[in-house]
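Changelog-adjacent note: as of this version, every example in the card shows the full chain rather than a window. The one below runs 496 residues end to end.
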Amino acid sequence: MAYSELLSLMHKISDLRAATAVLGWDQETYMPDGAVDARAEQIATLSTLIHGFNTNDEANRIVEDAQVYKSELPALQQRIIGRFIEDQKRSQKLSPQFIDELARVTSKGQDAWKKSRASSDFSIFQPHLESIVRLKQQEAELTSVGGNLYNALLDEYEPGLTVESLTPIFQQLKDGTTAILKSIDANKSMVSDEILYRHYDGDSQMKVAKQIIQTLGFDSNTGRIDLSTHPFCTSFSNTDVRLTTRVRENDLRSCLFGLIHEAGHGMYEQGVAAELDRTSGAGGASMGIHESQSLFWENTIARSEEFWEWAFPIVKNQFPSQLADVTPRDFYKAINKITPSLNRVESDELTYNLHIILRYEIENDLINGRLAVADIPAAWNDKMSQSLGVVPPNDAEGCLQDVHWSFGGIGYFPSYSLGKLFAAMQWNTMQVAIPNVKALVANGDFAPVLNWLRTNVHGVGRTETPTEISVRVCGKPLAAYDFLQYIGKKAEDVYG
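Full-length structure tokens:
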């Protein structure tokens, strides 16, 4: 009876969160520009209701009753209760007024970011971002888990992660990246990616990208695809998953790899066990684990030479004139060209991590009061120059390129690099479990790959921590070695 009451409460909270997510998805896809203020009020109302259901006296009583009988329940139900309690403890540290204000500020902030980016004018977004940073500083103070203030925001996306544990890993990535870049420096002119920037009709790009992700395993019966300013995946349940992408007719990578990336997120959500739906155990274990799934498909699989043995004829059939003089090997090398770039989303696998470390350093400084919002453009350009050797010509291609700060996602960015590390560890483990996996990929048979991920990662949802999943699946906690080994071998293959 006690667990049934808690289950009913979790269902209500989950349904409200799904409704909020629907409004957020609509805001990024179809909502008219004039609806921003009304949408901010709607999302604020729902966010406050969710907070109330999660923290009121009735919720506390239900949790107390469930805890009395917790030890008598099956292990899975015990873990679901544990996740609800962890979520509740964090929520109880934040007032309804705070939740209401944050929802309003971020909803309006997302619209301001889109306008700011479109005109490359940081001043439009600046006052909104100042409000967001102020609120996230307050949140960090209220939910502090000790040590650096930024730790509280990291913990929201990657439970247990701290600046103290993350900084050494990022330093390893920096050092390893520098070493690999030096190793290919003499041969860097050998690889051309010119073929990616020929003219590719937008509708045809979408057609072939949809065909590929459906073959990978994205279920179109429980998902759909739309366009947005910044690609994303959102899930209202494991039977209703939405992907978005963007199309650039002179850049074949944007739509194709963007959609494969988001499909990785989507297949994760579709693979969470049905018995976890509408509970605190649903969804991804962390953003790092979630990103490991999107980056696994986008990079480990879709940037492999074996993948293009299968996929290249499909893409060439859609674009016969553009790819008439190109071989699968040419294409493989082009999509794996290593060169510092301005844009995180479209950067290569290796230097991508430098983009993440840059954002991590800026966020850490922002939350700890060492950097003012007004100084972000200058700090961004300076760090880009130092770490990547390129400087954005404008803020749209610089500090305004990502949507995350506008929705309050401070602490989110490190998860992208953690995802790369987790993905490489999973790939090494998978190759032992499925010795012929590369041959399967070359033949377009992705079911064994997806089934392995479903069994080992997707199914448990949030009922295991990132470390528990990593140790159970890979036999060790998070480390940088597997990724550096993986990307080093690829760089050697591409550049000789």
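Structural remarks: The longest helix spans residues 2-29.
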